[in-house]
Amino acid sequence: QKEVEQDPGPLSVPEGAIVSLNCTYSNSAFQYFMWYRQYSRKGPELLMYTYSSGNKEDGRFTAQVDKSSKYISLFIRDSQPSDSATYLCAMSGAGGSYIPTFGRGTSLIVHP
Amino acid sequence: DAGITQSPRYKITETGRQVTLMCHQTWSHSYMFWYRQDLGHGLRLIYYSAAADITDKGEVPDGYVVSRSKTENFPLTLESATRSQTSVYFCASTPGGITDTQYFGPGTRLTVL
């Protein structure tokens, strides 16, 4: 079992839908949680970053961390075709390590 | 240009040949990383470096060599390429410290025939 589990999808939704992307993890010591967006044939780019539990909102994006359940989510409101990409979760901070552990990524397709 | 660059962007080579992938960042970030990305595996860490002349193995280091004589450069060498090393390679850097934010390069798509 990988330390970070993420459903690869693809997840296909109509434009305007609310999208929920999720990751589960096994190491309860993780403290920092990140979401990266990766367009086709590009490098990942940081989308959201949260520390410990709670919610963080940035425009149409909300990141949620539930450490008791070892579960993190990324919500995208009013999804757009330009949101079509692969979304990777990542987490770090276990045992003082700053090296993130990545999920495999979820492919999202938003169709007009 | 400021940021992190990789070269070449595309490379085709043959089994047994030596290949070097270059990574250059202009931010003077402390940490630099090399990942490979394959379908079904996601991003896997090959090597990383905390500073010039300090490198360490990641999850999949076999068949790869790195060096870091200057802070801004972190080349990755495949000493004798194998077909299993066909992949997309990403370099990343981070200033280190509490933020842990990684900045990724555009990737090098390597095919080993």
Characterise this structure.
The complex is a heterodimer of chains A (about 110) and B (about 110). Chain A is mainly β and about 110 residues long. Chain A contains no helices and eleven strands. Chain A has strands spanning about 5, 10-15, 20-25, 30-40, 45-50, 55-60, 60-65, 70-75, 85-90, 100, 105-110. Chain A is globular. Chain A starts with a strand and ends with a strand. In chain A, about 35% of the residues are buried. Chain B is mainly beta. Chain B is about 0% helix and about 50% strand. Chain B is built from no helices and eleven strands. Chain B has strands at about 5, 10-15, 20-25, 30-40, 40-50, 55, 65, 75-80, 85-95, 105, 110. In chain B, the strands form two sheets. In chain B, strands 2, 4, 5, 6, 9, 10 and 11 form a seven-stranded mixed beta sheet that branches. In chain B, strands 1-3-8-7 form a four-stranded antiparallel beta sheet, with no helix packed on it. Chain B is globular. The N and C termini of chain B lie far apart (about 35 Å). Classes of the chains: A mainly beta (about 110), B mainly beta (about 110). At the A-B interface, strand 4, strand 5 and strand 9 of A face strand 5, strand 9 and strand 10 of B.
Q: Which features does this protein show?
A:
heterodimer; A: about 110 residues; mainly beta; 5-stranded antiparallel β-sheet; 11 strands; B: about 110 residues; 7-stranded mixed β-sheet; 4-stranded antiparallel β-sheet
List the helices and strands and how they pair.
The complex is a heterodimer of chains A (112) and B (113).
Chain A: E1 4-5, E2 11-14, E3 19-25, E4 32-38, E5 45-51, E6 54-58, E7 61-66, E8 71-76, E9 85-92, E10 101-102, E11 106-111
Parallel strand pairs in A: 2-11
Antiparallel strand pairs in A: 1-3, 3-8, 4-5, 4-9, 6-7, 7-8, 9-10, 9-11
Chain B: E1 4-7, E2 10-13, E3 19-25, E4 31-38, E5 42-51, E6 54-57, E7 64-66, E8 76-78, E9 87-94, E10 103-104, E11 108-112
Parallel strand pairs in B: 2-11
Antiparallel strand pairs in B: 1-3, 3-8, 4-5, 4-9, 5-6, 7-8, 9-10, 9-11
